[in-house]
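Team,

Forwarding the record for the chain on the shared tracking sheet. I've put the sequence and predicted structure together so nobody has to dig through attachments.
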Amino acid sequence: MIITMMMSDVLNNTATAVVMAAFGWTLAHYLGVNTDPFLMAVAIGASCAFLTPIGHQNNLLIMGHGGYRFGDYWRMGLPLECLIVFVAVPMLLWVWPL
């Protein structure tokens, strides 16, 4: 999930989801566990591009009109991404056990 979030901050979230879904699927099969939590972690991670304005088109749209700078996204985005990881990982394992 963290790698997907990092990739989603610099790439399009759809492209990141496609690339990392194949990686998550392969990793789950290699480990011999359920693929659902891995694929859901990729989906959540690809949706959480909060560190840069180029991660999602909505971030870029509000950058100019809101008067935000590139560094402003880190101040709010990093705590938000950490919160998502700390909440989503246990929930994924609870809803889709390995």
